């Protein structure tokens, strides 16, 4: 399968069937782990050698491997546990993956065993999980009804939980069926996918205001794997700098200048990643990471400006020239990303409105930009392309809070309209599970003279 030995697809498939036949005839003389690996290698051969119309037969071999592992006398080998998960089984059978002569180089995952075909598929599955989690953060299912205690990013956390398990088992003791069973075994984990999983979990916890949960993973994020630190792509280093910017601001808001210095370094690395040249193709997972980092930097710069305004006079403080320049640089990166990655449009109008507020520009155009995030015109049968760019509930809430905090009263003419809009926003934030923004929203309601906070309904 890896091209180390010559031969036709037909002879290779015949060899796989012969191995299955001999293994079943061996009975108890063969270990459960070895028998399950033979079944899985046969399923791999089906996917790599037979026409697509016959790929359904891979399910039979996977089912046999699962039955052997789940038998009273068997255990699931760590490197095969993901195949017993419904998502892993579906990816193996229906996913778009291939086996190469050598594992594909990636900043998101490592194959581990370079001579094991299954290790390459496992690497592809880990990247698939990371991409799914990033997409859940980039465009949460805004119309889905959240269950009791279920946050906006519950799906993302489920993918990341499975990714963490797969990363830990990536290099667990396994035997390679490309060579004899007497070969030395390999131990360890996939440090790259494990690090990216920790980064995204921390960001999700920050978005939900779960700072204590995020802090438990700070050491894991600070320890950037050597392979990522020396990688050609600047994305891992940009992610680390963005993490340090947010961590510094949350720990001590008065250290906002240090936070901004981290933002500047992360911003420069992010721009380098976006301008690698036409010969460098950015994958969907690259774009999802770029969007996550770009939005994180813009939100951090916004929070620094808001804190300075609150300390100054409680009103609107025009940002300094360096702060505006940094914000505009990140905003330009977001615009560039939105040209090829539609989910970036969900955040673009909101940050463009923020840039105008920071610069003290005319509120008319600012109101128009915020209105594009406030009005979510969802219609039945909306095209996928339109749903990717339509602002979600989080964008709507953030637009409401910006409008109520900074727009002149003439733009919100109805008496008590600000309090009513903020009350609706608070109820939405309760459903989304965003504790930090909910607290800010409640404080705004109090300052506007309601005298009470919004409670759960």
Care to describe what's here?
The protein is an all-alpha fold and 457 residues long. The chain is built from 20 helices and no strands. The C terminus is likely disordered.
List strands and helices in order, with pairings.
Blueprint: H1 9-26, H2 32-49, H3 57-69, H4 86-94, H5 117-138, H6 154-168, H7 191-207, H8 211-215, H9 218-222, H10 226-229, H11 235-251, H12 256-274, H13 284-312, H14 321-338, H15 345-359, H16 363-374, H17 384-389, H18 393-406, H19 417-432, H20 435-447
Distance between the termini: 58 Å
The number of strands is 0
Q: Stretches where pLDDT falls below 50 for ≥5 residues?
A: 172-187, 377-382, 451-457
What is the N-to-C succession of helices and strands?
A: HHHHHHHHHHHHHHHHHHHH
Percentage of residues in DSSP E strands:
under 5%
Q: Main sheet?
A: none
Radius of gyration: 26 Å
- Helix fraction, binned, reads 55-70%
Integer average pLDDT? 83
**Helical run tally:** 20
Shape: elongated
Structural class: mainly alpha
């Amino acid at each position: 399968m890896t091209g180390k030995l010559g031969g036709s697809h037909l002879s290779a498939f015949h060899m796989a069937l012969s191995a299955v036949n001999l293994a079943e005839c061996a009975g108890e003389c063969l270990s459960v782990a070895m028998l399950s690996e033979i079944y899985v290698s046969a399923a791999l051969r089906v996917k790599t050698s037979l026409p697509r119309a016959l790929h359904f037969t891979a399910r039979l071999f996977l089912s046999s491997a699962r039955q052997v592992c789940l038998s009273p006398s068997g255990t699931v080998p760590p490197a095969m546990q993901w195949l017993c998960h419904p998502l892993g089984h579906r990816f193996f059978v229906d996913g778009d993956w291939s086996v190469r002569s050598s594992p594909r180089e990636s900043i998101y995952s490592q194959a581990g065993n370079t001579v094991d075909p299954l290790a390459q598929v496992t690497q592809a599955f880990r990247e698939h999980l990371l991409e799914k989690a990033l997409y859940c953060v980039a465009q949460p299912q805004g119309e889905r009804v959240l269950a009791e205690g279920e946050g906006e990013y519950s799906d993302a956390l489920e993918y990341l939980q499975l990714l963490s398990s797969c990363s830990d088992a990536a290099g667990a003791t396994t035997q390679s069926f490309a060579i004899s069973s007497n070969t030395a075994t390999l131990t360890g984990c996939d440090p790259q996918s494990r690090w990216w999983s920790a980064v995204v979990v921390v960001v999700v916890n920050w978005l939900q205001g779960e700072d204590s949960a995020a802090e438990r993973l700070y050491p894991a994020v600070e320890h950037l794997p050597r392979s990522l630190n020396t990688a050609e792509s600047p994305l891992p280093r940009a992610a680390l700098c963005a993490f340090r910017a947010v961590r510094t601001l949350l720990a001590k808001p008065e250290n906002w200048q240090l936070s901004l210095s981290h933002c500047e370094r992360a911003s420069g690395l992010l721009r380098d990643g976006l301008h690698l040249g036409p010969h460098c193709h950015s994958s969907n997972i690259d774009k999802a990471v770029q969007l996550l980092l770009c939005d994180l930097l813009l939100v951090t710069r916004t929070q620094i400006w808001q804190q300075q305004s609150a300390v100054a006079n409680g009103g609107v403080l025009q940002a300094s020239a360096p702060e505006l320049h940094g914000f505009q640089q990140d905003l330009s990166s977001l615009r560039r990303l939105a040209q090829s990655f539609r989910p970036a449009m969900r955040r673009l109008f909101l940050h463009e409105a923020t840039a105008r507020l920071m610069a003290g520009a005319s509120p008319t155009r600012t109101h128009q930009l915020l209105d594009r995030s406030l009005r979510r015109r969802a219609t039945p049968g909306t095209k996928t392309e339109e749903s990717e760019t339509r602002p979600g509930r989080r964008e709507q809430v953030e637009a409401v809070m910006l409008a109520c905090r900074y727009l002149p009263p003439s733009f919100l003419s109805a008496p008590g309209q600000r309090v009513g809009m903020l009350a609706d926003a608070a109820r939405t934030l309760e459903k989304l599970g965003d504790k930090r923004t909910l607290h800010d929203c409640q404080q705004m309601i109090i300052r506007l003279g309601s005298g009470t906070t919004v409670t759960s309904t």
